[in-house]
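User: My collaborator sent over this chain with a note saying "see what the structure looks like." That's all I know about it. Can you take a look?
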Amino acid sequence: MKIYGCFINGEFELNNSKNFINVINPYDEKIKYIVEESDSNQLENALKSGYESFKSGVWSNLDVRDRSEVLNNVAELIEKNLEELIEIEVNQIGRPIREMKAQLGRLSEWFKYFASLIRVFEGRVMPFKGDYVNYVERVPLGLVVQITPWNHPLLISIKKLSCALSAGNSVVLKPSEKSPVSILKIAKYLDDSGLPKGVFNIVQGFGTKIGKKLCENKYVSKIDLTGGDNAGRKIGEYAGKNGIYYATELGGKSPMLVFDDCEINKTVCGVTFGCFIASGQTCIAGTRLLIQKSISEVFLKKLKEKMFDLRMGDPFSTDTSIGPVISKDSLFNIDKKVEDAVSEGGKVVFGGKISKEFKSGYFYEPTVLLTDNSSKIAREELFGPVLTCIIFEKEDEAINLANDNKYGLAASIWTENLARAHSVASKLECGIIWINDHHKNDPSSPWGGFKESGIGRENGIEAYMQYTHTKSVVTNYSRNYDDWFSDKQSRYS
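Assistant: Without extra context I'll predict from the sequence alone. Here is the result:
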């Protein structure tokens, strides 16, 4: 079986250390890929390569039209090689192929968007008193470290990477050890598209070891992480110690607020998608369903009926809509949390146990659990196919329940009353809100949360601004001059 290594200064390389990481398919529990952990020399070389390429100006000072062309070339290569990318993603994380076709089919949009943005992004001329002109421009930060998670290996990596590169930065990226292979293909596409060597580098390994060394390095100007709460806090410490920028997208416990004036059939389909896409293994999963009491009985009945449409099975089968969770540890953790919730008074409406249908694979039944907002399972991120349902009576109660959580990433509102929808949206404490939908994403739409869901934004102009410095240039065009230290200096009077 082929062994994959890192990508440094335009070259794929191995160190022959035999420190291997097995990438296991969570459906058949077989090793699909083997990746070699990067050693300390490779880490240093990757960082040095990125730093030196930035300082050289070979990319950072390149005309934006030329940078734009490279990014558009990458988009074309992604579109031409989708089948290979999809196969790798399914093998790495076990998500159904129908999901991966939909998700990866949009990857090129991020490169195209930022390729377009940099061609039209304009600086500003600021008002400035006196005979002065003050113009403001955006310049790249330098070398940035990006640490990406296992659950959306390519999507999250490309959201970060396309933005950082468009701004003229150099990048060292560390993918999750659970899904480290697909991003190596993107490295090849970037190289083939004309990205100068050294601008993009990939290192492999575990976050606690490799990630720590990357973040502490003197060359780094920004750290961008999508991951867990503990990792986010560590990133903040490293960034604060070194006085550099950082961005984190962390956990979520996204509420879906269902009001009695919703269109019930549409809403049942929407919240099922909101919770169970990716088997609930996404930070914006709608795992807290808040249902208005007057329709709760009817709604839960229809939801239970809908659950029979969810089919577990081989991720490569187009009939499969629910894949396995990522690991055995995750499977047992989900099962324990559901058991604890039931012992605390929760009621299983559907599912509620590890599936015995398959000889292999980490399958947990899609589960609907009636509980209250104080239960642990309704407050903590679970990363599994478990929907907690909470009943409310009044609109204000729904808003209070939605906001009563340490996370503030996303929420959805389900109502046919648009006045209500926008009124409720204005009171929710989160960064992304959908009305009569969930999970929708676009390269131009800011992505990030409030509270403990992280700092900073992906996507759009907001992300681009956060990958650049502001440079303010003030020009004195007066024919006169001031002699500050003269007794006749006018400013004294």
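A starting point for your reply to your collaborator: The mean pLDDT is 96.
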